[in-house]
Amino acid sequence: MSTSAPATVVERFEPEELPAGQISRLLLQLAHDGLSRPIELPVLVARGAKPGPILGLTAALHGNELNGIPVIQRLFERLDPKTLRGTVVGVIVVNVPGYLNHERGYGQWDLNHMFPGNPKGNAAAVYVSRLVDRLIRRLNLLVDLHTASVGRVNSLYVRADMTNPEAARIAYLQRPQIIVHNPPSDMTLRGAAAELGIPAVTIEIGNPQRFHSDYIKRTLTGLRAVLADQRMTRHRTVSLGPAPVLCERSHWIYTDHGGLLEVFPEVTEHVEAGQTIARLTTPFGDLIGEYATRESGVVVGHSVNPVAETGARILHVGVPASEGDPRFYPRDPLPASESGSDEAE
To answer: Succinylglutamate desuccinylase/Aspartoacylase catalytic domain: which residues (predicted)?
Structure first.
């Protein structure tokens, strides 16, 4: 893609108005700041020469969660709109103010707890309401790209409603380390999409405020697999690799006192009920207490910030589903390839 290609300012995503067989650059206006300057979301759109589904990708809904940005950029570098069936939409930065301020939130608000928003509400509620109205409702599929929050680390994991066959298939195609079943009625972007009948998943791509290269490559490979599975690009063989740990639910363990925190298990490590997973000390080195898991599970993520106040997060534990649990769709073999393979680059 040319670095000098201009972007077109729009107030609404209208895919049928974009040229077929080309990649377009848009600046989607959602709001204005206190100096009357427009807040514009950078968007890439590959409209295929042939009609088909519209796949949406969103990154940086939390302004300091950056790994989704290179995922979208690199995906578009390899897309050929002349052979593409359907449309791929990449919202490179959703939370523009948070991104510019190197912050998670939109001011005092967490955007991913504000959906579907309110057109007559506060600044954040209007922002997400317009995002849904002006872009999200035009999609047929959605993948929302996140990372851990500052002071934490994550595995490569997916949140999805595993009782929904389309969402479950997207989740498995990502080849994550862990999948957490998570019904979408939770005021998130994924939940707002699901309420509109749009199958959606959230991918947690490693750690914040940095580019996590290995997880970026794996996510990119997974998204290419989704495109092929939707027959938007030529079909390829995807090696599914080891099965992810499918969790029926997950929970955090929190401190009940402040001090210096040391967490023992690493991400993806299995822990047993009653296992000691952290200890807390005073600044003088005196032991305040140790923390143990209530039930067995897998470590989805954990804190890496030693300075912990009362109520600080310690460990995110996923509780694996029973093998063959009939509530959840299983990982099915993918169809045979026409030719080629699609491995991480």
So the answer is: 52-228
Amino acid residing at 12: R
Q: At what angle do helices 68-78 and 213-229 cross, to 10 degrees?
A: 50
d(CA 291, CA 259): 13
Q: Which tens digit of pLDDT belongs to each residue from 89-146?
A: 999 999 999 999 999 999 999 999 999 999 999 999 999 999 999 999 999 999 999 9
Which residue matches tokens 């534990």? 317
Q: Structural domain boundaries of the chain? A: 8-229, 249-320
DSSP H/E element including 168: helix 165-173
Q: Residue 304 is encoded by which pair of tokens?
A: 């890496």
User: Could you give the strand order of the β-sheet that contains 259-263, starting from the edge strand earlier in sequence?
Assistant: 287-292, 276-281, 259-263, 307-308
Neighbours of 326 (CB within 10 A): 7
pTM of the model: 0.92
Domains 8-229 and 249-320 share a fold: no
Question: Residue 279's beta-bridge partner residues?
Answer: 262, 290
Work out the burial of residue 172: count CB atoms within 10 Å of its CB; fewer than 13 is exposed, 13-18 middle, 19 or more buried.
Answer: buried
What is the gyration radius of the CA atoms in the chain, in angstroms?
21
Confidence of residue 235 (pLDDT cuts 50, 70, 90): confident
CB atoms within 10 A of CB 107: 13
Contact 297, 267 (CB under 8 A): no
The token pair at 46 is: 């590959």
**CATH number of this structure's domain 8-229, picked from the four choices 3.30.530.20, 1.10.150.120, 3.40.630.10, 3.80.10.10:** 3.40.630.10
Could you give the C-alpha distances from 66 to 27, 60, 136, 273, 290, in angstroms and in order? 19, 6, 20, 34, 33
Name the pLDDT band for 190 (thresholds 50, 70, 90): very high
**Alpha carbon separation from 93 to 57, 59, 89 (Å, rounded):** 10, 5, 12
Structure tokens at 279: 């200890």
Per CATH, the number for 249-320 is: 2.40.50.100
* C-alpha to C-alpha distance for 140 and 138, rounded to whole angstroms: 7
